């Protein structure tokens, strides 16, 4: 809402400059957008809160300034405005011979009109044109300019019809007929529906109520007779219609936020005052005022102690009374600790005591509120339970050297989606997609690239891989995924290339593969004291079928790890060496996180025995390991695989495994013979798996 | 005796002639070793008359210790030089690039979230999460939105079904908490929010929000200001001040927009951070909380705002782009 400094000074006597006025308005809630200098005068652009339509006028903002700034005084014009611009011809009935008004819809709560005859609708005077230009309005003609000006001044949208163009020269406010057509002032023809409210003459719709007038009944230079409309419409009806028809006008802006129903006739009178001042002419005597619905006001009581408590600053009854009076509340009663008021008709946002407390607080000044910290007992703050566990898992992923990324939940379909199905043509609306039954799709996506909620984080990780175009990348993301089964927290990993940046010193660096990522997951599981296991998995089309495993964390099946399927790698232009993992963490909500188990540490020396065995390649290492553990017994402190060899000297289908066994006994030294015996025990056990010592 | 002096002289000459500690080791062996020339002199002691034996022995021992002392002195001298030469050959260019083992870098939003969690957690606010895909009633009805509020339009909110929207604010957690927990309460959350908006430098259809609220007896705007003050100082430094400006949000009454200023950042100007206020009594009543006994406050803000303001980041889109040229600037 724009206004010039002089428009404001018509209503408020003040020595403040534009910036000081704007500061006061900002601190009442009407925030300054900017001050610009137009035709030698400051113009304020003020942001109007969604629930404060009453502020969209010079009068409304003046009221706020007067309430906030004790140095400002109301002018005579302000006082007349608050008295609703009384007109001397209020009881004249002449107008009824000229026209009539009928309201046929509940969405119009008041309709008033005046009639002007013997018109010369030429250009308006320079002062009026200038003010309109300053606030960004284009001067058109006296009638149109005055309707606009009065709307900016007092907040009530007005519309001037050429009375001679109205069939039957009368007004009917009604809902549109289905298919009824109306060409509005902007030249657009609309096909209307019964939920659209219109102003009509005896035959046709002539205006979209509260939004825009019609072209055929528009006033022009040749207009000699005019019907001036001032009405009140239900805000939801106006909003719906203007949204559907894609129109936005100064009038609809105000009606959507609501306008004072008691200002309807006052605005006609203000228009008439200015018209008579400019032309010396008078309207046809009297006002038509059809007012089927009484305005809503509320009688409310505010308790001052409660106001002081909630605001956190001390307020007196006298202060509260003066703030509320200045804002136009009618004081119905005062006691030492409470005030009873009636709300003004322009404040439909005031419904209960707390609303009054806000009024008192914002006039008193929020800058006076001190800072205090809440007292009382507090729980242990921060993340707890599952939220704490996911934090720990994320931190472990970071410690394992993986960089964290954050990507959009909304995206397109991708071959790395879980249960990926090729997108087909003819997509449905929102909700569960016909073509992608497991996927969640938004109804009105901005673009096809963000139509679906991701059901796996893996596609986003590959986006990051491609975007950064790095040979070596090790990243993870933790976030939500969505499918028809619900919303879950997932952590996903992508790893490819060496673990050190390009180095100037040639080294034999390790390179990401299934086992490096497996090791990472094992470390993470260890850090949260959960057992982890891997089971061969062959049926997920995203993964290399012989290099993929299910991940079992705790006792829960949480996801998959594996090398990317070479065909998916090819179609997504990714390195075929990329390894991936996706773990859904929600099952861990049911998992009791482990407590580390302590074993006392032996002070006796350890002895190491290495063995090399030849064994068939299809014997899983897990089986070998289990055998070693059983055979080694409590004296086997550690064991580790340190070489896997196949080739020369090893028969086809076999490989040679070199395994270190480290024995240590609690509170006793192992003799060489004892260590050898333990080793032989392990070897013997392994022969039962078909292993032979090399 | 002359014999002793002669061997000693010979040894001294050899020591002086040595050019390296290795040469000296040879000299040491030649003269002082078990069968060395000086030690060997003792073998002839038996042939001497008894009265000369002690004198001869003393002379040999003296010669030995003199040679030994000289030898050690020479070793020390040569060793210093040799080490220096070794150091020269082992000289490295310390300006060559470091070779770091991998270190996982946290996303800048995570760093901010960690800070938020530490701050609010330490003030006794419990961290809770709630769904991104939220029921209409938690996102709007439970937060005192009037029916037909513009924010509910499909132009502004992503709908999946009539009753399922991508939450437009993390405040949607409130209703879920009030349904199952009784005051006093201190709760906060951090998460994604979604608005059907065109993407540019300052707008994105997805962004993160922190939402914090508490209910207790006698909670006031002063407690809100104090908590926000502590929070803002933890984010932006000890000199931050908080300002309230009246504003309208359906879920608070009184409602404010809060701004911060600091002498160091933003040229001392007030910069708006987010919305706040006392939890609307309609909401408390909806969940059976007696507004005569309890009141509460709530505040929210965009997580991205914090690093944008603290570091001067000028494009909101960076946060979801995963460009390491951006991310590596913060961790």
Structure description:
- The complex is a heterodimer of chains A (694) and B (331).
- By secondary structure, chain A is of the alpha+beta class.
- Chain A folds into 5 domains: 2-82, Phenylalanyl-tRNA Synthetase, Chain B, domain 1 (2-Layer Sandwich), CATH 3.30.56.10; 94-290, Phenylalanyl-tRNA Synthetase, Chain B, domain 3, CATH 3.50.40; 299-368, Phenylalanyl-tRNA Synthetase, Chain B, domain 1; 385-420 and 430-590, Bira Bifunctional Protein, Domain 2 (BirA Bifunctional Protein, domain 2), CATH 3.30.930; 607-693, Ferrodoxin-fold anticodon-binding domain (Alpha-Beta Plaits, 2-Layer Sandwich), CATH 3.30.70.380.
- Chain A has 18 helices and 35 strands.
- A 7-stranded mixed beta sheet of chain A has the order 21-26-27-31-30-29-28.
- The relative contact order of chain A is 0.06.
- Chain B has 331 residues and is of the alpha+beta class.
- Chain B has helices at 2-17, 21-32, 37-41, 53-89, 108-122, 136-139, 173-180, 221-236, 281-286, 305-311, 318-321, 324-327; strands at 126-127, 133-135, 159-161, 164-166, 185-194, 206-217, 241-246, 252-261, 271-279, 294-302.
- Chains A and B meet through helix 2, helix 7, helix 10, helix 12 and strand 20 of A and helix 5, strand 1, strand 3, strand 5 and strand 6 of B.
- Strand 20 of chain A pairs parallel with strand 1 of chain B, so a sheet runs across the interface.
Layout of secondary structure:
The complex is a heterodimer of chains A (694) and B (331).
Chain A: E1 2-4, H1 5-11, E2 12-13, H2 18-28, E3 32-38, E4 41-46, H3 58-68, E5 73-74, H4 76-82, E6 101-103, E7 108-116, H5 126-134, H6 142-154, E8 158-162, E9 171-175, E10 181-183, E11 189-191, E12 197-200, E13 205-208, E14 212-213, E15 226-233, H7 235-245, H8 250-257, H9 264-279, E16 288-290, E17 299-303, H10 304-311, H11 317-326, E18 330-335, E19 338-342, H12 353-364, E20 382-383, H13 385-399, E21 403-404, E22 410-411, E23 431-432, E24 440-441, E25 452-453, H14 458-468, E26 473-483, E27 486-496, H15 514-527, E28 532-536, E29 543-553, E30 556-564, H16 566-571, E31 579-584, E32 607-616, H17 621-632, E33 636-645, E34 654-663, H18 672-687, E35 692-693
Parallel strand pairs in A: 6-9, 21-26
Antiparallel strand pairs in A: 1-4, 2-5, 3-4, 7-15, 7-16, 8-15, 9-12, 10-11, 12-13, 13-14, 17-19, 18-19, 22-25, 23-24, 26-27, 27-31, 28-29, 29-30, 30-31, 32-34, 32-35, 33-34
Helix pairs in contact in A: 2-3, 3-11, 5-6, 6-9, 7-8, 10-12, 11-12, 13-15, 17-18
Chain B: H1 2-17, H2 21-32, H3 37-41, H4 53-89, H5 108-122, E1 126-127, E2 133-135, H6 136-139, E3 159-161, E4 164-166, H7 173-180, E5 185-194, E6 206-217, H8 221-236, E7 241-246, E8 252-261, E9 271-279, H9 281-286, E10 294-302, H10 305-311, H11 318-321, H12 324-327
Parallel strand pairs in B: 1-5
Antiparallel strand pairs in B: 2-4, 3-4, 5-6, 6-10, 7-8, 8-9, 9-10
